[in-house]
Amino acid sequence: MAKYIGPKTKIARKFLEPIYGQDKAFEKKKYPPGQHGMNRRRKVSEYGIQLKEKQKAKYTYGVLERQFSNLFKKASSQKGVTGEVLLQLLESRLDNVVYRLGIAPTRAGARQLVGHKHICVNGKVVNIPSMLLKQGDVVSVREKSKSLEVILDSLKSDRANKYAWLEWNADRMSGEFLNFPERSEIPENITEQLIVELYSK
After folding, report:
1. Does the domain formed by 93-179 have CATH 3.10.290.10?
2. pTM of this prediction?
3. Is residue 43 over pLDDT 90?
4. Can you tell me the distance from the alpha carbon of 89 to that of 107, in angstroms, rounded to the nearest whole number?
5. What is the mean pLDDT of residues 80-92?
6. 3-class secondary structure for 45-97?
7. 21, 90, 24, 18: which is closest to 57 by C-alpha?
8. Which pLDDT belongs to residue 28?
9. Any idea where the domains of the chain sit in the sequence?
10. In the sheet where 166-169 sits, what is the strand order?
11. Is domain 8-89+189-199 given the CATH code 1.10.1050.10 in the classification?
12. Using CA atoms, how far apart are residues 108 and 96, in angstroms rounded to an integer?
């Protein structure tokens, strides 16, 4: 399973946003990485701005280039605004939903839980983090994994019932993917139109 395993604070500083969550190192250095990070004032081209937005989306959702490109093609072939559909597809990934439900503290942690077979979809164990969920799919913690400390600690967060397109059942430790979220419901600071413009060149 391919994934980014490099320095996360450096990536967050590149985009000047804590895209991987709370980060003490990022809070101390809110400027681009590198020797001249604090003094860099280079003019960025239109292409550079569009590319940076695509990279931000890729790193935020933990998707590599080929997966991202395939998702964009899928979004382009569906009805609706391509950029919004792209974000909806990213939000419907199993690892993202596990994270949104509060089962894991980060998307990387969610991918690990899925990869280690701690998560079920519609009652069946699934170990593919990139699986795209459909409306009505139920994501749950595997019965023998319900006592895992990392899951119990994560569920103490306020994410469990934070999103209108997900419904969490604390007693069953399961959540339903009710529908694809509207763009206004997706909290990520991503300008998806820039990504569409990049791919349309």
Report:
1. yes
2. 0.82
3. no
4. 15
5. 97
6. CHHHHHHHHHHHHHHHHCCCHHHHHHHHHHHHCCCCCHHHHHHHHHHCEHHHH
7. 90
8. 55
9. 8-89+189-199, 93-179
10. 124-125, 119-121, 138-141, 174-177, 166-169
11. yes
12. 9
